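Example record

One chain of 176 residues, shown exactly as stored in the release files.
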Amino acid sequence: MSSIKLFEQKQIRSFWNEEEEQWYFSVVDIVEALTDSVNPTDYLKKLRKRDSELGNYLGTNCPRVEMLTNGKKRKTLAGTIRDIYRIIQSIPSSKAEPFKRWLAKVGYERMQEIQDPEMSLDRARENWQKSGRSEKWIQQRMTGQETRNKLTDYWKESGVQKSDEFAFLTNIIHQE
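Predicted structure tokens for this chain:
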């Protein structure tokens, strides 16, 4: 499944990989959106030469995926969200700076949550409140998650190993 996303009025081609269940985004489109380069392909080539680690990373992690280009399907260098984050870190552009600051902030917050896991629970609660969930819903969700974790631990101890068995058992719980 292909699709086009917009970033500040720039088109970013994307592709949903059913098998991997993740989005791939056109690397050239990302570069164009963040640099306003007249030739984003050349910009990317120069970026890869300047940052050899990035060049190796792209060659190893970013496959060529079929996307519409000028009305025709062509293979385009594409990356997952994780890959795109790595590319953005290497782009010296004022448009990329707000995104880099956001990435740094999120990374710092996650590091704090590793040191104090209670912070991640507080963040989850806050995000659910922002999305309009009631306190009752939030409490049920958190309690349900804890119950599920205990149950899956019990299943592991009882010999359940296959992910489809976990999915089947979890689905039964969800329906109840």
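Notes: The mean pLDDT is 83.
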